Amino acid sequence: MDDVDLLVVGGGKGGKxxxxxxxRGGRRVAMVERGMIGxxxxxxxxIPTKSLVTSAxxxxxxxxxxxxxxxxxxxxxxxxxxxxxxxxxxGGMVDLNHRQFIDSGMDFILGTARFTAERTVEVNLADxxxxxxxxxxxxxxxxxxxxxPVVPGLAEVSPLTSETIMExxxxxxxxxxxxxxxxxxxxxxxxxxxxxxxxxxxxxxRLLPGEDPDVSEVLTxxxxxxxxxxxxxxxVERFSGGPGAVTVRLxxxxxxxxxxxxxxxxxxxxxxxxxxxxxxxxxxxxxxVKVDDRLxxxxxxxxxxxxxxxxxxFTHVSLDDYRILKANLAGGDRRTTGRxxxxxxxxxPELARVGLTETxxxxxxxxxxxxxxxxxxxxxxxxxxxxxxxxxxxVDRRSERILxxxxxxxxSSEVLTVVQTAMLAxxxxxxxxxxxxxHPTMAEGLNAxxxxxxx
Length: 455
Fold this sequence. Notes:
Layout: E1 2-9, H1 13-24, E2 29-33, H2 40-44, H3 46-63, H4 79-104, E3 107-117, E4 120-125, E5 130-140, E6 144-146, E7 174-178, H5 182-194, E8 197-202, H6 213-225, E9 228-232, E10 236-242, E11 245-250, E12 255-258, E13 260-263, E14 267-269, H7 276-279, E15 302-304, H8 315-329, E16 343-345, E17 350-355, H9 358-363, E18 368-374, H10 379-383, E19 390-396, E20 402-409, H11 412-424, H12 430-433, H13 445-449
Parallel strand pairs: 1-2, 1-5, 2-3, 5-15, 7-8, 7-13, 8-9
Antiparallel strand pairs: 3-4, 4-5, 6-14, 10-11, 11-12, 16-17, 17-20, 18-19, 19-20
Helix pairs in contact: 1-8, 3-4, 3-5
């Protein structure tokens, strides 16, 4: 048995950052990763999808080039080039992560770990053989995988997931997307840009039900303008056929026929085969590791970070889990409660969100003011000929502090940090309304947004 100061099981953002940091600090560290060097984000999630979003957006811009005085020959997606672009970005980041792992001085182990006792794992190595490791402290960061629901006929039609579609075997003739969340919508618009017919089926009454209806409806309209067919409030009853000709039967009797099905119905934790019971680590009914607000599990000196711990499923949250756990391992008392978590939907235009929606603020009994600004009112958007969108802000009427914003428009993910910083600092909305912001930029729109009250 190899004893180490820190044993990290799974190489997601939080775990790998903690492992490298501890190793560079002179601690004996071992990290076990079953295959994705760098984690899910780099290999099959954030990085490859946003690489392809870049391609899809460029196609859209080229198709509208005449609007800005440029004539371009017909543009189309080239599958081998798309694959090379995606694999080049991913491969470069995987190589960089691997070098960083080795250079940190950690014991990086490729293999599949299973707990056999408290803080102890047996690892079946990828190249054969077996190792047993025990950590003075153990961190679980095994992440999640796409959830494929049990629906009659679904397994038989070989559905795509957000991971397998990244293999880019072909551009579907007609992609049927099951689920209208942020993963499903990014892929829907992306493949519509690549030339696929796309249909989105969602069980909710509207897309993104966690957003205010006005924001959701505007985004839905833009997706439809871009050729995405959307059916909300529907239940899928069964699937039939096979790859190339899939029939999706809905509960109301309608049938949708497509060449491929993409299941974007959420993610489930990678805990089933970890042997967590032997480690004394409890999980909830869905299989996520139970943690307190210090990220401690039910077992002593055993922690969990990232998606597997039920944290919001964003890489930037996993990174903050690292900060919290690093402090707590050093004797601190940092907690997850009260975090201000932003998120971005990388459709075109982007939707960037932080804080409360109007719906939630009013439901909580808050006295709020609401500001709205069409993106067409922002000069920078006009210079780019990219004026689709709506910005919305919620402000506490008494304190004048910003409670939340939804920014639907070009470059919104970059502007969002400005608002988030003001919220973290507890500044009144007037600080952004009256700030001298460079012209012409998208951030300049914040001057106008916080002077455009509708309530």
